[in-house]
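Sanity check record (used in CI):
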Amino acid sequence: MGSRARPGGSETHVVAVDALMPGFSPRHVEDRAHAQRLAQTETPLPPILVHRDTMRVIDGMHRLRAARLNGRRHIEVTFFDGSEEDAFVRAVEENVAHGLPLSLADRKDAALRILAAYPQWSDRAIATRTGLAAKTVGALRDCSSGETPQSNTRLGSDGRVRPLSATEGRKRAAEAISELPETSLREIAKIAGVSLGTAHDVRARLRRGDAPVPAGRRGGGRRGQEPSRPTAGAGGRAVRAATARDNSALLRRLMRDPALRHTDPGRQLLRLLQGRSIAVEDWARLVDAVPAHCAEAVAEIARRCAASWAEFARELERRRVAERDPATE
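Expected output for ParB-like N-terminal domain-containing protein:
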């Protein structure tokens, strides 16, 4: 197998035809007539594109068949280095950009395969690669949502990661600020996939003791969609999961606060907060562990603990109000 540099700068290699295999083409059906036309042309054909690790053709199956029709034993190739998923995306891009056009069915199937491999990519990013409209990709995503892994972010065609909803972005920003208090807001914005202004607002809200998400925005739907109302069942579990994440972020921030860590009462409080918290994912396991004859007693203790913590919270709130306005004493 020899190699030489092309005028454009990419290195080509001469490879035995029998060493190459099909594999990454987004076409369902090979056009034999097109291959015959290529075999009859006297103009030199460009090198085909091959995945180096597997020796499977990414772009150029018709050129490869033309070489075989002409009895050639070797063909010029350019190698592609990357994963098989990336190789398929490259195959789609190459076939959309030039040569024999892909059918609409080929492009839709390619979009579905890319959605399965890269669910975090935006509809527009996938549309650009497949030659489809972004709304067509969105419809394909909705139809395949049961089989396609879902992501809370989308990677746009400009390379920027954006959250599907402002709510999720703000929650991620709050977690990042709590876990990385010394990190700049610009880095927090990158980590959470939000704007610098949003990161600044989230930090200001946390410093005031407010929730990172304004009260009017606490739905969890996609941008441009009405937030769904919390309901019993799956919706209620989603709300509890979001609350648990917020509590975990707040607790991590408290545990780093020297005003609590460096006093005995403060450390005792942190231990109580840690020990009395139940992660939402543990609920089902713990409920199942309670025998039927103990359920009433456990529930009563849980209610009393909840009432004690509620009174503790009210006392803290009364003290906060009194310190803000001594005249209320």
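The chain has four domains: 2-151, 165-214, 237-289, 292-323. If this sentence no longer matches the regenerated tokens, the check is flagged for review.
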